[in-house]
Amino acid sequence: MRWMLFALVVGCDPGDDWMTAPDPDGEAEAIALAWSEIYETPGPLPEIAWVTEGLVCRDGRGYMLDGECTLGHFGEDDVVYVARPAGLRISRTALAHELAHAAQWMREGVIDMHHQGAYFTPQGPANRGGIYLASAGY
Ligand SMILES: [Zn+2]
After folding, report:
1. Per-residue tens of pLDDT for the chain, all 138 residues
2. CA of 93 to the centre of ligand 1 (A)
3. Which residue of 28, 39, 56, 107 has the fewest CB atoms within a 10 Å radius of its CB?
4. Which residues pair with 69 in a beta bridge?
């Protein structure tokens, strides 16, 4: 069941254009704090892979996945992938949104791919996580 759900979300191998980069100073701690304070998830922070290469759509802010431009996704490998153009603050990326997908998956076993549920309302963790990171200066 789990793999079938992910097959709906992630359809293809992104190939060799992907690259992950280490977090600049302080960001990893801010993300971990957001995870524990906003997402209220009993599990550990998922691995985050910053996509810094292959940003070929949405004015250099997105990458192609399964034929569509995306700013991030929660992968079948339980990794949060987030497009990150050079110089863009993490609060301006899809990180908070993708962490909400990861949190919902860990807590409820659900992938709300159409963003209909409470995780994606203005009061939900996707939005609050982004506000938290921005207010912390990230
Ligand atoms: Zn989403």
Report:
1. 444 444 445 444 444 444 444 555 689 999 999 999 999 887 899 999 999 999 999 999 999 999 999 999 999 899 999 999 999 999 999 999 999 999 999 999 999 999 999 999 999 999 999 999 999 999
2. 12
3. 56
4. 64
Measured in angstroms, how far is the CA atom of residue 41 from the centroid of ligand 1? 18
Q: How far is the CA of 31 from the centre of ligand 1 (A)?
A: 18
Span from the CA of 72 to the centroid of ligand 1 (angstroms)? 8
User: What's the gap in Å between 12 CA and the centre of ligand 1?
Assistant: 17
